[in-house]
Amino acid sequence: MKKLNLQLFTFIILLFIFKVSVAQQAPNTLSAKEKKEGWHLLFDGKHTDQWVGANMSTFPTKPNGWVVKDGTLTILSSGGSEAQNAGDIITKEQFSAFELAFDFKMTRGANSGVKYFVTLAENTNGSAIGLEYQILDDDVHPDAKLGRDGDRKLASLYDLIPANKPASTIRPIGEWNTGKIIVYPDNRVEHYLNGVKVLEYVRKSQQYRNLVKISKYKVWKDFGEADKGHILLQDHGCEVSYRNIKIKTL
Fold it and tell me: Could you point out which of 12, 119, 196, 210 has its C-alpha 20 to 30 Å from the C-alpha of 162?
């Protein structure tokens, strides 16, 4: 009995140490397990060498735009206009099937987004076109009341599919949330918020195309159906911070 109790005590201690080590993993780093699984960082907390401005060959350096500080990549507030100050930034690399994870922190009334399958083929004057994981302060920003059935709220597939998220899933303004987008090789797509799956759909399916036909994207031929594209962080004129941006090819 004493031996069994000692084994149980040892197990509990080891479990506690493991949980503490996971919780204390430094931001913008990969664990040995993640490296083995094929994850790589898109932002290391210091450098933006994997990003450029949309329709630019370099990273935007406009004052009061994108700022790297204290391990975060922040787009500063510029009045709420879409891509009119520093502009969106995109990854230099393009991706097809992948798992993308990112932390984001909003200020009150914030609006931004993480877009994927961005090709820049549309040549827009505003934000570049792509499938969008919406980042929004649902309680304050007016965009939350637009669209259909809440499909412009936090973690939704913007203007297409609303996120099914309990209120308990959302962390308060000023705290870090974790988003995840998984695109499988068979075109299944899932959005997650703080570990909870909030929506799923199939790219290129008839159901998906029917949704596009009644959205703002109906003017773009084959919207969201590119075989590969850039990841984009949106400048919507509101202060939003990002960190722990990492991706794994599937």
Answer: 119
